[in-house]
Amino acid sequence: MIILSGPSGAGKTTLIKLLLKECPYIEFSVSACNRVPRAYEVHGKDYYFISKDKFKELLDNNEFLEYEEVYEGNYYGTLHSEIKRIWENGKAAALDIDVAGGTRVKRKLGKDALAIFISPPSFEILKERLIKRSTETEESFKKRMSKAEAEMKSRNFFDVIIINDKLEDAKKKLVEVVEGFLSENRQPLNKGM
Ligand code: 5GP
């Protein structure tokens, strides 16, 4: 399993997309969440957009490998069924999850997971990127900035830290560490099934 965590606006989603293009043997783990979809987002591709009640139902049925209330009232979680689907395809799963979720999955999976922290070069740049992205309301922007500050403090719990200053360099480093990890950890395709 490949875990990509880091503050909102650090560039995880862009980097995961580039990684997937480069490495066809990795598949994106689509999370479930109850936030409102952005205009460009597609159900089943970016997220499984579900109601809060549905999220709670899945939680009660133990359907999540991990979940977090990432922002107040907004729940996000990795479904066991999603990871099973990817592994049954004989691929490695790539998770784009928040820092708390990332550290939790790493603790559970140990050496079977590579935990990567994507860091912005500075807070100022993170702020600029979030403003440029203009997907957030003022309130949600403030929440993301204050959470980012706390998240940056957890970066040393990760196996690798990649500073996303120049996208091309960050991508190169990402592909390099992921390929290194996967070549050392190749599993027979039917493992655990
Ligand atoms: P956004 O609302 O910007 O898509 O995502 C907000 C944050 O939630 C991001 O840091 C993203 O990585 C994280 N996130 C997305 N899916 C999951 C998940 O399944 N579990 C956890 N813990 N965090 C997630």
Provide a descriptive summary of the structure in words.
Helix content is 44%, strand content 22%. The protein has 193 residues and is an alpha/beta fold. The longest helix is centred in the C-terminal third of the chain and has 18 residues, at 167-184. It is built from seven helices and nine strands; from the N terminus they run βαβββαββαβαβααβα. It has a single domain (2-184), classed as 3-Layer(aba) Sandwich (Rossmann fold). It is globular and about 45 Å long. It has helices spanning 12-22, 52-60, 80-88, 99-109, 123-133, 138-152, 167-184, and strands at residues 2-5, 26-28, 31-33, 47-49, 64-71, 74-79, 92-96, 114-119, 160-163. Residues 189-193 have low confidence and may be disordered. Helix 1 packs across helix 7. The strands form two sheets. It has a five-stranded parallel beta sheet with strand order 2-7-1-8-9, with helices on both faces. The structure holds guanosine-5'-monophosphate (5GP).
What's the quick description here?
With 193 residues, this protein is of the alpha/beta class. It has helices spanning 12-22, 52-60, 80-88, 99-109, 123-133, 138-152, 167-184, and strands at 2-5, 26-28, 31-33, 47-49, 64-71, 74-79, 92-96, 114-119, 160-163.
Largest sheet: 5 strands, parallel
CATH third-level topology: Rossmann fold
Outline the low-pLDDT stretches.
189-193
Domain count = 1
CATH superfamily: P-loop containing nucleotide triphosphate hydrolases
